Amino acid sequence: MNDDQNYETLDPENWDEMRKLAHRMMDDALDYIQTARERPVWTPVPEEVSAKLTSPAPAGPTPPEEVYEEFRSDILPYNLHTNHPRFWAWYMGSGTVMGALADFFAAVMNPNVGGINHVAPRVEQQVISWITRMMGFPDSASGLLTSGGSMANFTALTVARNSGAGYDARREGVLAAPGPLTVYASTEIHSCNQKAVETLGLGSDGLRKVPVNDDYTIDLDALARQVNSDRESGMVPFCVIATAGTINTGAIDDMNAIADFCERENLWFHVDGAIGAVAVLAENVRGQLSGMERADSIALDLHKWMHIPFEAGCVIVRNAPAHRDSFALVPEYLQREPDGGGMASGSLWFSDYGLQLTRQFRALKVWMSIKEHGLERFGRMIARNVEQAHYLGRLVEAQPSLELTGPVGLDIVCFRYNPGNLAPQPLNDLNKELLVRLQRGGVAAPSYTTLRGHYCLRVAISNHRSRPEDFDLMVREVVRIGNDLVSGTVH
Hints:
Oligomer: single chain
Order of helices and strands: HHHEHHEHHEHEHEHEEEHHHEEHEEH
Structural class: alpha/beta
CATH superfamily of the largest domain: Type I PLP-dependent aspartate aminotransferase-like (Major domain)
CATH architecture of the largest domain: 3-Layer(aba) Sandwich
CATH class of the largest domain: Alpha Beta
Helix content: 40-55%
Distance between the termini: 67 Å
Number of domains: 3
Strand content: 5-15%
Radius of gyration: 25 Å
Largest sheet: 7 strands, mixed
């Protein structure tokens, strides 16, 4: 029974061979990031690879070297390549080397950061304190690292509902409300907020979408009319969501005006800052975010404009007791001991501030990345992306066959190819085909959206590796593909 060689575990059968493989994997990983510019931005998954990935799980073992070779041949080449300097789709950060290494060590340590007396919760607490101060919140505020903006917004809206419903919503449920509970945001609000409102039991009608101005910011007069009308009809408004960087155009709502409105109307002021909240670090954006520090809660994504590897979202809440009261539930097997006791001692249990009891060590990659680079460098990268967006806007305006379809907001540029009377098909269809050809060609990867009925290419420049020549190349390629579509040329 004590013969180590015969006692089966999941550890390597040969540590020396695993060590050699690990060194090779590390070298390959660094090469992959260093040479990102040399590969296509996107390569579709071949049918034969897709077929392989439907095979059943093996019953017996496979040598680690063979597993790794299969990964290199069938998985790594067909990644989304968010670390490529011309990846500008769906607003994703481009990652860092230290962040990736930190994620590796988080897996090596393998802690559960729901609570318990160990170092990982303390690291997360330090990261939360950095973020609350960065956002201008008091040291007494609470926070939680989440999978992303979706869970961050859900967490904040849960606290908002429980605090603003006017009764014990957590105990009695939404059916006990004196009227339909309602949340307010612009029509440009991210869809995750609607999912959150629906999941909280308020129904999609519980999210009142307010019209926007020409610059895609919320119409404050329309907001006031909607809240007043809803109250007169027996509804119970409790929260307004401002957006710090809309997903379509990067528009930033007037934070101070919304804060004033929420104070007058006794409403919870929440900011969905998944895209732009961290831009308080950038000198050329900070002023546009004035008033965000007055919010009751902010949701933000560190895996976007701060390039922390996925997943790394965050929510901060001004009223820490209200935050904890919305989620804390301590069964017998999680009873805490006084400080100085055993492993269950201490009050730092992040499971009291969100849905998850089991939580991964997200904080380590945030902690190591901020330690390595410092907040000022992140601010310079953000500021440069904003400058690049305006550079791209000028490139578009200089091309007769291209046109901007919306204002350049933050780091997002929306435009389309428009050859005028030469268009062989409706412009929306033409630009859809153009985007597919552009993406499949692997040169650049913007995404798309529709603004006032116009389908357009959407370039979200949250990429610390992008250079001016990358935008020059994309514009040339867009014009070339568009001209080919007009002439009927096939490449």
